[in-house]
């Protein structure tokens, strides 16, 4: 089944053994096909020529025509560099090379005219270009040669050192395209190409390397993105369709008398518009007759708990029980505390079950779960133990999705003799909708994107370590007003001892700085009981300052705590900073978050801190996080395939993703096994993709 694209790269004209080895090692290019898929990461517009006098240091890349008037080596040893001057009738420009000087000196001739291309920078009053590209200027010919959009390819330092640069790659790619263009076969059905105004695969590949103009480049990109997202969605949805054909019937929750009483008479506040919308989405889902699988996203404090409770009432109204499962004991406890007042108010039975539940309680819980008199159970993993049996589990709410695996979800499904329970997965880690759609292909997504009215957005500042005294001063003012404060230290597992020392020292210095106040300390090494007791003291206002590690990220709700100081804030990821900050701003008072850092911040570090200062919107933060880290580090993306996207950007191409998803869904609805003639091509490409990923794996190992 091998094709011309499997030809070894050394057989391409202009490659040979040496370059072949560089291509193998530096770029992972082994075959013709691999080289074609080394797409340029940008293109340069080489249609305009500047006069030197028109160039400023804020001009991006420019090309000029000038005469090389001097070329000299200056400096010694490491400081050695090659300096040149080009000039035209409007002025002079300095050129400098720090590397490859010998080769360049040999190539360039003083007195000749060149097309000079590069990014100018100002040094004092001089403009200078480092490592410019130099093309001998040969009137007439060069104009034609250098016109249009030039591809820029990724190359490595090693390649540059061997003057195997982007332009050399472009030349090879052009040679290759001329040779194999007609062998590039289509991968999408003809009707999809027509309906979606796409160009052919062959043209797309050719134009993504060598577009005639920006429009053709765009067409090429559109086509490649479409194809990429299409095959990804086909894969994801196919697994979902598999489930659908299994006919996961669901219980029908259409009677809602208790829900209505609660909603009309007991609800202590008005729901936000977003809460209402989400409750409606869930209700519509749970009476369809199919099992619900829904992700409920909502920022910290957006009011997910009440939504969950109202859904539990719907279950109860239809003779079903509900379970809420949380990843930690503290979190389970907090959910229980949050739900209990509502449940009590409605006379609904509710219990907490965790690993540390007493045997006596446990027995009662087991019994009432089995006979159906217990309506709501809140707990940890203990809930999925074999011993636990339900009378009729109808709704499962899972908090903090990312800590539960698919296997655990499935274990809960087995807990019922009737239809599988409806699943509502809640997360406060906002994931951009597009990413959620891609990653959780099997989940519908509901979003609470509105905070209850009257919340004061948390004010966030960035302060450097040297300003700590003033930060402490501010803390003191706030504490004197009766508020409480958190001081958080990072705790990174690999260096736990070190961080622990940081924390201890921090605790001591805080105690010294606030001798008249009481300081709590909480960290992951404490016994759960001690930890809880200390948290309790803080929650009751017996201590004013809580020095802690990130254990407080989940699990504490102290509305009177209105300041959070985060030490070494640059060490935290955006998602974590956001979760931490969510611990304040829960009461009526204005809350503050102070991010402390050292003077030196990495570029990403700066962006993270600035994002936190600029916004409290979890979705904006998640988007920024996605841009910074790529989807690779965001929970749950590892197996999803979004990591391998080369053309599309799920952040930016969300509209296309939505469209492609609908198309893929329709195809699989109509032709789940792709047996129709026009779909043969899809199957073919799918097996091609599988084959390719197998080859890639075998190369790695
Ligand atoms: P989270 O989404 O972080 O779980 P919670 O459900 O804990 O948020 O809600 C945070 C607080 O806001 C709780 O005290 C809750 O009672 C309150 N709350 C929820 N919805 C509303 C609303 N619509 N109006 C006012 N307060 C609300
Ligand atoms: Mg919550």
TrEMBL record:
Functional summary from the UniProt entry: Plays a critical role in recombination and DNA repair. Helps process Holliday junction intermediates to mature products by catalyzing branch migration. Has replication fork regression activity, unwinds stalled or blocked replication forks to make a HJ that can be resolved. Has a DNA unwinding activity characteristic of a DNA helicase with 3'-5' polarity.
Protein family: Belongs to the helicase family. RecG subfamily.
Record's catalysed reaction(s): Couples ATP hydrolysis with the unwinding of duplex DNA by translocating in the 3'-5' direction; ATP + H2O = ADP + phosphate + H(+)
Organism: Flammeovirga agarivorans
Cross-referenced PROSITE patterns: HELICASE_ATP_BIND_1, HELICASE_CTER
Pfam families per record: DEAD, Helicase_C, RecG_dom3_C, RecG_wedge
Protein name, UniProt field: ATP-dependent DNA helicase RecG
CDD domains (UniProt xref): DEXHc_RecG (cd17992), RecG_wedge_OBF (cd04488)
PANTHER family xref list: ATP-DEPENDENT DNA HELICASE HOMOLOG RECG, CHLOROPLASTIC
Broad enzyme group: isomerase
MF annotations from Gene Ontology: 3'-5' DNA helicase activity; ATP binding; DNA binding; hydrolase activity
SMART domains the UniProt entry points to: DEXDc, HELICc
Protein's UniProt keywords contain tRNA-binding: no
